[in-house]
Specification:
alpha/beta; three-stranded antiparallel sheet
Length: about 170
């Protein structure tokens, strides 16, 4: 997996995000799939409600290139939890579970982009908290975050110490 990071002000944060990205990917996908992924992490600093986004960059049915945007105005823990959430979306896109499709509307003259989740079409205006792909990501984000912490504690205590120290001084 190739990971690049852009628009982050802190080198330590970039290192943690790359480390966490590798861990999260290993929880969700096969080594073969992971090896073919390209992830571009992008930081943004806005005081709004959005903590992050995942976008498929290529248009293949099983995309391999993604951009994950993370709101760096949130706490360190929230950023890592958001990264976990967005990696669930990477998995969903890469395995063909989630995608977008241009469909003809009933008038047969206009088209609309709609979300496809496990071969079922969804209205683009569906409430966020009713989107099954979001529900899956929400159900896994905390589990993945705590697995990362446990992994650091058991296998890489120096990384955990750096994370905890960084968290203490972050923002």
């Amino acid at each position: 997996m190739k990971i690049t990071a852009h628009k982050f002000k802190n080198r330590s944060l970039i290192n943690f995000l790359k480390y966490a990205s590798v861990h999260y990917a290993s929880l969700l996908m096969t080594k073969r799939l992971i090896a073919n992924l390209k992830i571009k992490l992008i930081g943004f600093d806005h005081d709004d409600e959005y903590s992050g986004f995942c976008t498929s960059v290529d248009t293949r049915r099983y995309p391999r290139e993604f951009e994950i945007e993370l709101n760096t105005s949130f706490s360190f823990e929230k950023i890592l939890t958001t990264l976990a959430h967005e990696f669930v979306h990477v998995k969903q896109f890469a395995r063909g579970e989630l995608g977008e499709k241009l469909i003809k509307l009933p008038d047969k003259t206009s088209k609309q982009t709609t979300t496809v989740w496990k071969r079922e079409y969804f209205d683009p205006d569906i409430d966020y908290d009713k989107r099954p792909w979001e529900l899956e990501a929400q159900s896994m984000e905390d589990i993945m975050y705590y697995d990362l912490i446990e992994h650091c504690f058991l296998n890489n205590k120096s990384q955990l110490e750096k994370m905890l120290l960084f968290n203490h001084f972050y923002k």
